[in-house]
Amino acid sequence: MVPSNTIFQIFLIFQLCLGVIGNSLLLMLYIYSFFLRPHVKKLIDSVLTHLTIVNMLMIISTLIKNIMLSFGVPNFLDDVGCKAVLFSFRVSRGLSICTTSVLSTFQVITITPSSSKWACWLKPRLSTWILSSLLCSWLINLVIYGYMVDLVIAQTNKTHAGLGYLDGYCQNKYFGDHNSWSFNTIIIIHDLFFVAIMMWASLYMLIFFYRHHKRAQHLHSPSLSSQPSPERKATHSILSLVSCFVLIYWLNNSITLYGFYTKGKIPRLESINAIFYSMLPNHLPFFTHEE
Length: 291
Known about the structure:
- It contains 9 helices and 2 strands, in the order αααααββαααα.
- By secondary structure, the chain is mainly α.
- Strands 1-2 form a two-stranded antiparallel sheet.
- α3 packs antiparallel against α5 (126-146) and α3 packs parallel to α6.
């Protein structure tokens, strides 16, 4: 019988290969369209390219460390390595959430008829709005997580007991300090804000497609009304994608907060959470193609 640790190692490696290969293929597709087929490229492709790069960085920065940990590699990261890996991961995770909310809002603006005043005003300015939104996302996440860099060091506490961040290689500089709640609150507010935008955009699209489907029913023959409509397919796609994202997001954050505030640390908990981290971005590059 195969040991559970071996199965876990294989699963982590599979997640890494799947995430890197899948996102690399998407990135090559966008680069190919940008340089060799410029007549078919769309404005949203630039956002998807950005999201693909961010997702790949997020997967690499979280899974490689946990794969090394699962194989028992000692002292894989020193102080500089811990700062670099954790900073890269947290920034890319924040950018993934921000960029996905930009994608959701882009979809809302795109499907809204130009008869709407706000859509009529915003559609000609979409390229400027997208660039400004992505730059602001970078600035916000660099400022928030730049503060964190000085607080992370290589692991010195081997007892796995106390409040604070601790995994197999890294930990808080002031492990056991009770004053981290303010920084965690800022991160939670940041995530909730962009997830709320995503959920609002998805709800708007659901209502829009539902109303459009009702209007289309009056124009179609009864024989066609029983067939699955594009609106119904789009509605199911939005529901499944957003439900998956929100579920993984809350599972991930619940495990993170539990691991941070519980005194008795569980060594494998961070690796299990890494699986959820890697699952979070895997379906996002296909968001606009499903609708």
